[in-house]
Amino acid sequence: MLDFKRQLSTHGVPTPVADIDMDLVRDCIHCGLCLPKCPTFRALHHEGDSPRGRMWQIKEASLGLVSFDDPRFQTHIYQCFNCRACETACPSGVQFGPVMEMARAKTPPQNRRDRLVRAVLLNGLLPHPRRLRIAGRLYRTARAIRLPELLRRSGAWKVMPLGKFAAFPPVGDTSPRQTPLAAVTPAAGERRGRVGLLTGCIQDEMFHGSNRRTVLALAKNGYDVVVPEERVCCGALASHAGEAKTAERLAAGTLDAFTRLNLDAVIVNAAGCGSNMKEYELQLRHDNQRREAGGAFAGRVKDASEFLVDRGLRPPTGHIRARVAYQDPCHLVHGQKIHQQPRQALKMIPGLELVEIVESDWCCGSAGVYNLTHPEIAEEALSWKVKHIIDSGAEIIASANPGCILQIGMGLQRAGKDIPVVHVMDLLGWAYGDETQRPPVVRRAMA
After folding, report:
1. Residue 110 CA to chain centroid, in angstroms?
2. What pTM did the predictor assign?
3. pLDDT tens-digit series, residues 22-67
4. How far apart are the first and last CA of the chain?
5. Nearest 5°: phi and psi at 265?
6. CATH of the domain at 362
7. Domain count of the chain?
């Protein structure tokens, strides 16, 4: 039988563009069941900004019927959150996320803000550990001297480029100096295994305490926790944005760093990173030496709550008497299909009352770097989320991704609501006995 490309050329139909998997594209039957779950279709009311509309455009571009350089095509492709809610809604199992990343890799953005974010953040900062450490020190120094509070009180953040992000003080370390995590943290009590932890790039600089409490929870559950000597970035943000070469290089480095450690599992506490690492066979498809290893590695990658709950979480003893709402990160609930485990972990904390948020699985607008490249659309998504959180009556919001924590915390601060947004592993770590960086409401709840 002739292969697909030869059949096309024989019948005078354009040959598909390389690097776009047409089998994945053709899985979409354009039924439209995804439309009610798409945040950009909800915000923009345009078929071109729906999942089936984008799949149709990608199919046409792949066949050469539309140019990847067409500004209209680029606009629709980059206005997608890539939240993958359409995958959850799809009855055909369409892998929209990987297709979108392939299309973006062929589609250079024309948005100036997008190009700047790529140059500075995705290619200039995150892949370079030394630069990232310097940026982290500057960020923590600004927080230590209360610069965000000054910006917020003076109103200066309203006129500064990206000032709204600088003005928001997230839960995290305020000391300019951080104590690195131990190379190996031994299990407490009966030993059950040996795991590695991805400390991440932004996660470790801005949420080092969440990493430390993740280590504590794993150790309390009987696992030796190993942190790679190399500072690794998994490549998630680059991959989601279509920076394929950067993403592949970072994926290869992450794979190599963990493979040599002889681990039972690799634990990730950032939803976007975990989703990306579970698709390393796809990310490394052009690397013949690492492609098969990437698939095997992906099978050992586990979200922190997924791993602890599925292996039998040892209940903590510390009480947290508070109403807590859990916000589903898109790349956890839609990308990794993990919905119940974070909730089950929270329910095991004595005294904690878990409440649900309306549309908890809708994107908050963070979406990797989307809130930097398309702030107007991201603001609309954030407004839906903040309203539902306020209506829930929750005293604390828990999530499992640094981007969500930053975005939602910023939205609540600007709405005048002093509701802390923390990681699931923060609450679990505090319940296991960690006493650092507890917000006032948590301190009161544990008194």
Report:
1. 24
2. 0.90
3. 889 999 999 999 999 999 999 999 999 999 999 999 999 998 898 8
4. 72
5. -160, 160
6. 3.40.50.11810
7. 2
